[in-house]
Amino acid sequence: MNEIDGFGIYKWIDGRKYEGNWKDSKMEGKGKMTWADGRIYDGFYKNEKRHGYGEYTWPDGRKYLGNWTGNKQHGEGIYVDIKGGMSKGVWVEGKRVKWIDNDSNVQ
After folding, report:
1. Of the options 3.20.20.70, 3.30.360.10, 2.20.110.10, 1.10.10.10, the CATH number for the domain spanning 6-99
2. CB atoms within 10 A of CB 64
3. Where would you tag: which of 43, 72, 87, 100 has the fewest CB atoms within 10 A of its CB?
4. According to the model, what pLDDT value does residue 60 have?
């Protein structure tokens, strides 16, 4: 089997689409994944998982802008609510553990 390396686009039958870099036939480096329901992840991948800086957008407009490890939010990031309010926080393995700014208006 030939390995896929470099930039490419792949579409799954369930409506997902990945546009970005590949290494050894795996998503690796900068890329953008879109889902049929409107979710979008634009950021970095390592061994097919979200890893490094990335921006995730939910269909309702909420966003997470920050660090990822092993497909989960991990480290500092910014949460943007549907009204555009922004709050800085810390996430560990996909769960927010604290807000950094005292003026956070997001619960």
Report:
1. 2.20.110.10
2. 20
3. 100
4. 96
Supply angle C-alpha 95, 98, 100, rounded to 5: 130
Asked if 34 and 56 count as a contact pair (C-beta separation under 8 A), the reply is no
pLDDT at 51: 98
Distance separating alpha carbons of residues 52 and 74, to the nearest angstrom: 9
Predicted TM-score of the model (pTM): 0.89
Q: Are 47 and 56 in contact (CB under 8 A)?
A: no
**Residue range 78-102: mean pLDDT, rounded:** 91
Question: For 26-83, what is the HEC assignment?
Answer: EEEEEEEEECCCCCEEEEEEECCEEEEEEEEECCCCCEEEEEEECCEEEEEEEEECCC
The full set of domain ranges for the chain reads 6-99
